[in-house]
Amino acid sequence: MSRLRCAFAALLAATILTSSPGAAQERIKVIASFSILADLVKNVGGERVDVAALVGPGSDAHVFAPTPADARKVAEARLVVVNGLGFEGWLDRLVKAAGGKATVVVATKGLKARKAGGGHDQQDHGHDVDPHAWQNVANVKTYVANIRAALAAADPSGAAAYQANAAAYSAKLDALGTEVRSAVAKIPAARRKIITNHDAFGYFEAAYGIKFIAPQGVATDSEPSARDVARIISQIKRQKIPAVFLENVSDPRLMQRIAKETGAKIGGTLYSDALTEANGPAPTYIEMIRHNLTTLAGALTS
Ligand code: ZN
């Protein structure tokens, strides 16, 4: 046998070995409802898990319309991880379309939900609770614990790995929470208020003390009324609110109009409900929180 053929035979043998059952680790297929959750699953699951998001980077999960291809992905997944708290209004229909057998993991299980429109005096068309619990970094430790438990139940031989990954990631979340608090502390108290498109930052406000005011409710499926917009404009003028922010999942035109009519500056873009692609400023949850923090602090302290 020539040396080349010998090498080829060895390669073939190696290929057969690694593809035989038991020799290769088969990855656990997980579907996450949106990009932020997919990032959390990736951090807890590591190499053992193959995760994809139904609603990808830059897309709005509030108004998502699942396709038959999405139903197939759900049917093939071992676990379907969702936020819950009414965020995925399309979930029940999708699970039914997928044959009804999906194992659904609610990542916010055990968290105390914030009431929709809390303190903002606005109508919230059919939404009782605010689903954006991930905007408080401490809450994400509950997401991580729920994801860890679900992965360990689906794949018991990976339990120790999931435990180690979850502990390491939770330590990063603790550090991130501290970082947010100290950055907010540097913003003069009177300037800690901003305007955003939709009411996605209520948990951030409650945890860290920046006041967010939004013309649109906790979902994006209904337009703000002319009255809501007029009220916001007079509030900005009365309270001298320094900045308005755009959101990656919302139409920028309303905020641009409000900025023009009030003289408030546009402070930048905040990432509320979706990450960016890998080459954007918020490709992971941790980078998203950091980006929002830098953007807020930059606009409110200058
Ligand atoms: Zn939202």
Task: Please sum up the structure shown.
With 302 residues, the chain is α/β, with parallel strands linked by helices. Helices cover 45% and strands 14% of the residues.
Protein described:
- The structure is a single chain.
- Helix content is 45%, strand content 14%.
- It has helices at 3-19, 35-45, 68-76, 91-97, 137-154, 159-185, 202-208, 226-239, 253-262, 285-301; strands at residues 28-34, 49-55, 79-82, 104-106, 114-115, 129-130, 193-195, 211-213, 243-247, 265-270.
- It is built from ten helices and ten strands.
- Helix 2 (35-45) packs across helix 5 (137-154) and helix 5 runs antiparallel to helix 6.
- It has a four-stranded parallel beta sheet with strand order 2-1-3-4, with helices on both faces. The chain has a four-stranded parallel beta sheet with strand order 8-7-9-10, sandwiched between helices.
- Mean pLDDT is 89; it is low at 15-23 and 119-123.
- It folds into two domains: 28-175, Nitrogenase molybdenum iron protein domain (Rossmann fold); 178-301, Rossmann fold, CATH 3.40.50.1980.
- With 302 residues, it is an alpha/beta fold.
- The structure holds zinc ion.
- Residues 62, 132, 198, 200, 272-273 line the site of zinc ion (ZN).
